[in-house]
Design brief:
Layout lengths: L8 H4 L7 H20 L4 H12 L3 E3 L5 E4 L7 E5 L2 E2 L13 H21 L1 E2 L2 E2 L24 E9 L2 E9 L2 H14 L13 E2 L3 E2 L1 E2 L6 E2 L14
Antiparallel strand pairs: 1-2, 2-3, 3-4, 5-6, 7-8, 9-10, 11-12
Helix pairs in contact: 2-3, 2-4, 3-4
């Protein structure tokens, strides 16, 4: 059996279908992708797209624990996956935020972790030492030591479902971090309540408006999918 921890990118991307190195690498990706489909049954097509990105070498694992995933639609755009979030348009619509770029980053990290586990496992009583980088290609392995503090981070206090919560955003770029913060604040506008204010509140978007079609109140916020918030 070929240990994937010792494979170079030239080996795993070889066009020779009979190459055992290529087969071992693709099998590792397939095994982890199959588990992802069981965990995320509603994201089967996204998992398939993520597998294509990993096999094409389009996922770069960065030293700070984030990942950069190349766009499949053009050769110039790349999306950063940071703290479980992605910049792509599909991220807000994907189930629990599992867009294909986030899934691809997860697959690449787990394949890299499997490679490290193989390299650390004793073989015939002797620990093996990988002679080549992990096959994520151009991607430094995720460090085993604690990750350094993110270059940019911000904390914001929000009211969610009637509870006060603290949300921490981290990023490697301050400008992108501020854009993400602005998007979060738009979802949770500041609500100033007066002592006599009896206006019903949407748990997500704040004050509701009285219905013009009859009794009751409604949330005036339209969601990303075009539907109106039901205020529940």
């Amino acid at each position: 059996m070929v240990a994937i921890s010792t494979l170079s990118w030239e080996e795993v991307s070889s066009p020779d279908f009979g190459n055992p190195a290529r087969a071992a690498w693709r099998q590792a990706v397939a095994d982890i992708a199959a588990k992802a489909k069981k965990t995320l049954p509603q994201c089967g097509a996204r998992v398939d797209s993520a597998v294509k990105s990993v096999l094409a070498g389009d996922v770069e694992l960065l030293a700070d624990g984030t990942a950069k995933v190349a766009s499949q639609s053009n050769g110039t755009t790349a999306y950063f996956v940071v703290n479980g979030t992605c910049e792509c348009k599909d991220f807000p619509k994907a189930p629990s935020g599992w867009c294909k770029h986030r899934i691809a980053a997860g697959l690449a990290k787990r394949v890299a972790a499997r490679a490290r586990a193989q390299s650390d496992a004793p073989a015939n009583g002797h620990a093996t030492t990988p002679s080549q980088p992990t096959p994520a290609q151009a991607s430094p392995a995720v460090p085993a030591s604690p990750l350094p503090e993110a270059p940019a981070s911000v904390n914001v206090h929000l009211e969610l479902a009637g509870r006060q919560v603290q949300l921490t955003l981290r990023d490697s770029d301050e400008g992108r971090l501020l854009q993400r913060l602005e998007a979060v604040l738009k979802q949770f506008p500041l609500v100033v309540k007066s002592a006599g204010d009896t206006t019903p509140q949407c748990p997500t978007h704040g004050p509701m408006k009285p219905s013009t079609k009859g009794k009751g109140w409604y949330c005036p916020t339209k969601l990303a999918d075009g539907r109106w918030c039901k205020g529940k």
